[in-house]
Amino acid sequence: MATIINTGSSQLQYNLNVCRRHSCRQAACVSSVTFNGCTQKELSWSRGISKFLQIQRCSSSQSPINENRKSLKTLSGSSCLRDGSTKYFDFAVIGSGVAGLRYALEVSKHGSVAVITKAEPHESNTNYAQGGVSAVLCPSDSVESHMRDTIVAGAYLCDEDTVRVVCTEGPDRIRELIAMGASFDHGEDGNLHLAREGGHSHHRIVHAADMTGREIERALLEAVVNDPNIYVFEHHFAIDLLTSQEGPDTVCHGVDALNAETREVARFISKVTLLASGGAGHIYPSTTNPPVATGDGIAMSHRAQAVISNMEFVQFHPTALADEGLPIKSSKARENAFLISEAVRGDGGILYNLGMERFMPLYDERAELAPRDVVARGIDDQLKKRNEKYVLLDISHKPREQILSHFPNIAAECLQYGLDITRQPIPVVPAAHYMCGGVRAGLQGETNVRGLYVAGEVACTGLHGANRLASNSLLEALVFARRAVQPSIDHMRSSSLDVSASNWWPRPVVPTSLEGDEMHKILRTTRKVRKELQSIMWKYVGIVRSTTRLLTAEQRIDELEAKWEKYLFEQGWEQTMVGLEACEMRNLFCCAKLVISSALSRHESRGLHYTIDFPDLEESKRLPTIIFPCSPVNSTWSSRQLYKQPIC
Description:
Elements: E1 2-4, E2 16-19, E3 24-28, E4 34-35, E5 38-39, H1 45-52, E6 86-94, H2 98-107, E7 113-116, H3 125-128, E8 133-134, H4 143-153, H5 160-179, E9 194-195, E10 205-206, H6 212-225, E11 230-233, E12 236-246, E13 249-259, E14 264-275, H7 296-303, E15 308-309, E16 314-321, H8 342-346, E17 350-352, H9 372-386, E18 391-394, H10 400-406, H11 408-415, E19 426-435, E20 438-440, E21 452-454, E22 459-460, H12 473-483, H13 485-493, H14 516-540, H15 547-570, H16 580-601, E23 625-627
């Protein structure tokens, strides 16, 4: 059931939606609804979220953990196997970006930690973050100013309590990174060099040239490697959360993960699970996200009955490198678009159309320094009006030394293709960049699933509202990773690990029984379907939307999913079978449908969601979009949680 809740007001409006197979439809508005004994009209996002998503503490005694797991420091993870494929940990962390690693380093002081990562540990959105981390570190700046910029960029849909927490605690999180060895740029006065980006009223962006994420990831990974209580499992793809039903509560007990190298399924039983798996950029054909960003965490959580929020707000970064405009063409297609940092515009970069006309002042008085949604729509409008493939971002009027000092990575990448950014403008085009929506979380990263916490892009904390302010993503990840620590420790200490828990769920099956030709056909068809899905999303659910387009996308994606599943089972696929590309595909389907359902339920244009049918911003509709889990009845293979313990 998809719902819209008013936060921060005693007036509560719900856009209740009737769930069908995959999607939701607005049906009625009511004044209040009782949920687990709590009247929801009393709840704001953050004040009430801990009550709304209350974590019930387990009173059972703590069970000792296998002490032999320290030898698991090797990435194979062989020494803590139980029954051949089960591993027991106090904490399981899914994802190895800034949120997952920062959390792991704190909770490892209190128990054993498994970090489960889909590829190599450094392959995360963090590693690709160029601009930096925003924080109030200058005497002329203030928390109130940072809050105001965040809320304005978020089109006033941000939760004020969440914004205050993040902006207040952010500076300490930066200082912790520096203490851990992260090296950021300093000015001639010896102080941190603070850059400015679009939407910010002050210079407050801490950065390491244009490779900030890479530097943070380096420092955190180095600390993780040296931590004897953290064990990293590379190339382990999380399939589904392991859950059970205790009365009205859903409880998380860990996760099943496919080892992509050995094609074996490992079962991780844990007292606490942190989901820090990133976003879903690859529901679109062009995205700045790495290949691992296929919405796995959001989809797993939705299948596991977690509440999802604000999925209509997909941020398109206005300036990704447009390969078509480069002097030398790339010999092969990119897996992800190369990001041209927000900081280029913040440092004085100017946008021109191919007629060398500066156009952003036509759309906003802040011109190139307007928030990303404004700039992306401005570029999109220019491309459509002029029937052109890209626009130009020019920083060449700045001193050469300054450009190369501030943007060495961007300069080097462009130079590979014959473009000298100190002398020539950069061809750019919008690309999918960041999911402002995700798994709904409280002020301590808690969810409505007991034992499951979220942090980073997979979470929807209320910070970003309808549009994320530049460089607030790494900040949010750091703050919420840290805030989730104490409640996680409390939950871990009051929980026990049942060694028989591994047998509560059926085991996933790798399709070894299928012949080589059949698997090749399945993989070939799945890759084709993936491209079709991405094409539909870009054409109908892009920067500018309409109800007709959204309904068309919904219908076509339902048909595409049904056709794909029918093909799988005709080829011999079975309900309990798992494979990397097939499971990614079902996650992409899930996230695409969540975006469309959320977009259809918002009858206004706000922030990143712009629809020509409701072009104005409506104060009465300043409400987050909340998607409650639908009944699993009549669900498809894609939407069904494969390994949920039956309700007793």
